[in-house]
Amino acid sequence: MKQELRKQFSKVIDKALEKCPTDSAQARWNFIRNAKYKTAIDTFGKRANKSENWFKAGIASLGPAIAAKGTALLEYKSQPSAKNLAIYRKACNNAKSVSWKCAKDNWLRLCEDIQSTAGKGNTRAMYEGGDEESLRP
Question: Which of 28, 93, 95, 100 is most buried, with most CB under 10 Å away?
Fold first, then answer.
């Protein structure tokens, strides 16, 4: 199966590269890059993400904490003082604790998904990190 896909990819990429422009190196490189990507996706398919990124999932709570940390850092750099340093350290600690909470919540959700699929006897989905419904593209 894999060998057939490789042969198919080779044929399709060779055909696509026949139309490669020769007017400039930049245009040639862009064409080759785009043709290679499109052909690979068309031939092999795109891999589905098994679980969502914990950072993206928690951005609602992480965003304000990160913004507060950045603001505190800028304030400390513009007016260095013990008070601004304490504010900055507090903002750093808050951002760290919020990020740990988001990562932990994501880990617990993943564990619950694995546990529920194991309870259903769905071994394949269990090892892929979630319920079969959530794994479908």
Answer: 95
What is the value of pTM for the model shown? 0.53
- 40: closest CA among 18, 20, 10? 10
What own/partner pairs with CB < 8 Å and gap ≥ 24 does 34-37 have?
Answer: none
| Residues 6 or more apart in contact with residue 111 via CB below 8 angstroms | none
Strand stretches in 28-128, DSSP E: none
**70-98, pLDDT tens digit by residue?**
999 999 999 999 999 999 999 999 999 99
* d(C-alpha 29, C-alpha 71), whole Å: 41
Provide the residue type at 102 as one letter.
C
Tell me how far CA of residue 104 lies from CA of 91, 94, 101, 120, in angstroms: 20, 15, 5, 24
For 47, list phi and psi in degrees, rounded to 5.
-75, 130
